[in-house]
Design brief:
Radius of gyration: 17 Å
Number of domains: 1
CATH architecture: Alpha-Beta Complex
CATH superfamily: Nucleoside Triphosphate Pyrophosphohydrolase
Largest sheet: 9 strands, mixed
Shape: globular
CATH class: Alpha Beta
Length: 229
């Protein structure tokens, strides 16, 4: 989940109550200072290994201001002001060096996210996608310096982490070569395990199960307003 970068970026304000874009721009830092809602995009990439699903997690760089050196959503970022199409492709290219065939994306819809601390107030409408991609981990490229690796986490291990903490090994790639790494709950973005993320993660897990069992996805997040976005 990316929040700040060294380059100040303009993003579009969204109306938090009506769940619609306003057409007004705001600097990203100010959106966090004043709790101004905006749009974010998330992509979860899964792959098949020995007939079982694995979820790809990006490794956030240690210099990141928020949540450094942890495993996070495969691709995630803010939507720059004025960008109307190929929003997730922009982030995928910047973070993982890949171009997506958008016809293979499964759209899970939007979900509200809010996090308030002493330092910032983050309100975001997160547009979440899912796709299956079995390319080797070594084909990913980390172009923007914010991502330093990628790991394939077995779905059953990730699900188990929501009930108990334990250690397990996974395959990864750090931009130089294949690696094996021992993981536990502390290595992941802590927000994944917050109660406020329950609906998000439950819907994601259902979508992955559907994709692996029937090759399509029907489940979506409940609409964030009366009509679908």
């Amino acid at each position: 989940m990316s929040y700040y970068t060294s380059v100040e970026e303009e993003i579009e304000e969204w109306d938090w109550d009506r769940a619609i874009p306003t057409g007004k721009s705001i600097k990203r830092s100010l959106s966090y200072k004043y709790g101004i809602a905006h749009e974010g995009v998330h992509l979860w990439i899964i792959r098949e290994n020995s007939g079982l699903p694995e979820i790809l997690f990006q490794h956030r760089a240690a210099h990141k201001k928020l949540y450094p050196d942890c495993l996070d959503i495969t691709v995630a970022g803010h939507v720059p002001f004025g960008l109307k199409e190929h929003k997730i492709n922009k982030e995928a290219m910047e973070e993982l060096g890949i171009y997506l065939d958008e016809s293979k994306l499964f759209d899970l819809g939007y979900i509200r996210f809010e996090e308030k601390t002493d330092e910032y107030h983050h309100r975001e409408f997160q547009h979440v996608y899912l796709m299956k991609d079995n390319r080797p981990l070594e084909e990913y490229r980390f172009n923007d310096g914010e991502v330093v690796g990628i790991y394939a986490v077995p779905l059953n291990f990730l699900k188990e982490l929501f009930y108990r903490d334990f250690n397990f090994e996974v395959d990864g790639y750090d931009g130089k070569g294949a690696i094996r790494r021992l993981l536990s709950r502390k290595d992941f973005h802590p927000l994944l395990f917050m109660e406020s993320m329950n609906l998000y993660m439950e819907t994601l897990f259902k979508a992955i199960d559907e994709l692996f069992t029937k090759g399509s996805v029907d489940v979506r997040f409940p609409s964030i307003r009366g009509d679908a976005l």
